Amino acid sequence: MQTIDDLQVAGQRVFVRADLNVPLDGETITDDGRIRAAVPTITRLADAGAKVIVASHLGRPKGAPEPKYSLAPVARRLGELLGRPVAFATDTVGDSAAATVASLGGGQVALLENLRFNPGETSKDDAERGAFADQLAALADAYVGDGFGAVHRRHASVYDLPARLPHAAGGLIATEVGVLRQLTDDVSRPYAVALGGAKVSDKLGVIAHLLERADRILIGGGMAYTFLKAQGHEVGDSLLQEDQIPAVQGYLEQAKERGVEFVLPVDVVATKEFPDLSTKAPVEASVVSADAIPAGLMGLDIGPETRKLYAAKLADAATVFWNGPMGVFEHPDLAEGTRAVAQALVDSSAFSVVGGGDSAAAVRILGFDEAAFGHISTGGGASLEYLEGKTLPGLAALED
Ligand SMILES: Nc1ncnc2c1ncn2[C@@H]1O[C@H](COP(=O)(O)OP(=O)(O)O)[C@@H](O)[C@H]1O
Ligand SMILES: O=C(OP(=O)(O)O)[C@H](O)COP(=O)(O)O
């Protein structure tokens, strides 16, 4: 892969595809880790005299502008962290973007509005994606891929755009790939993987691969209920990926055959309704057995017995990869499972990698010292697919 040193950037318009998909509460950024991770590459390019055009997605808008997914708050925070002004374009390839880019001098920085406000960004149709990539390419002279958290997406700004411009990998991608490579080579054992979070359908597929690599797989978060249901248990109103039940039953069988230990919750914290995350009003929560979650209740965290069990299963691991919070950690009444797993990693002597926008945010929001972990990755799905050995579109595009 080419690096920034291989590009001519002074006086050039350089498009930086970052992943600034940060958690927001209204317009308040609750964790700015991904913005901080993007700063070194942007600073380096600006210091070298580039006209830096930063672009990212935020959330999952459906191809049209939605104010709650605007990157405007991110532009303000990016400016503070860079210590230089950031011009914000209120569109991605329209008049505002063109005027903003035209006004940039060498060493100056602009941020475009959310890439996913345009249907071409995520389209499955090559021509539609290509047409959007053409519009993006017209804004710039060179491309730097630095949004590690999105490199597993075959999206216009990640995959199609680099083919249209001289391109290089930024420092964040280089660092992330360097660390994750350690988990694909000779990994120290026991190797434990903890999986949770809400992007269940995205992440279930990686388990087939993990069965060939890991010694122990701990399941929490929204993913747990598809496993419990696959074992024949009732899961009430919990998050469920019904169509994945046969696949999950297959994973449980294969694990037995291979001697891989699957560890599932024995108890969960359940509520009647999903809590209000902006007011954080206390929730009426009860601890119920994981093999019989009553109708009308949804499991939103692992319970106290499960926390002890998971801590014990992580204590003697030599390597741990963790993606996905164990519960709805954004609410203080549902954060204890996530806290327990983070604490178990801090207490163990394992080489620990925590991956994912929300997992990394959780670790910081719950007050853990980042230095207590081996590596905190900005990518969850991206890390998992990298570990799976898949060709990641955003990395392949930079290699060509
Ligand atoms: N049992 C659950 N039900 C619904 N959502 C959950 C549950 N457990 C965790 N979550 C949610 O999962 C989200 C993070 O999932 P995900 O995006 O997959 O993780 P990451 O960004 O670390 O890859 C958090 O916002 C959290 O509230
Ligand atoms: O948050 C992200 O991924 P992650 O939750 O797997 O860490 C990335 O920004 C990718 O977002 P996407 O999963 O909506 O494509």
TrEMBL record:
| Sequence positions that bind ATP | 203, 299, 330, 356-359
Positions annotated to bind substrate: 19-21, 34, 57-60, 116, 153
State what protein this is by name. Phosphoglycerate kinase
Its family remark reads: Belongs to the phosphoglycerate kinase family.
Q: Which organism is it from?
A: Streptomyces millisiae
Subunit: Monomer.
Q: Which pathway or pathways does this protein act in? A: Carbohydrate degradation; glycolysis; pyruvate from D-glyceraldehyde 3-phosphate: step 2/5
Enumerate the transmembrane spans. Answer: none
Provide the protein's localization: Cytoplasm
Q: Which GO molecular function, any one, fits this protein according to its record?
A: phosphoglycerate kinase activity
Give EC number(s), comma-separated. Answer: 2.7.2.3
Alphabetic keyword roster = ATP-binding, Cytoplasm, Glycolysis, Kinase, Nucleotide-binding, Transferase
Output the Pfam families linked to this UniProt entry.
Answer: PGK
Superkingdom of this protein's organism: Bacteria
Which reaction is this enzyme known to catalyze? (2R)-3-phosphoglycerate + ATP = (2R)-3-phospho-glyceroyl phosphate + ADP
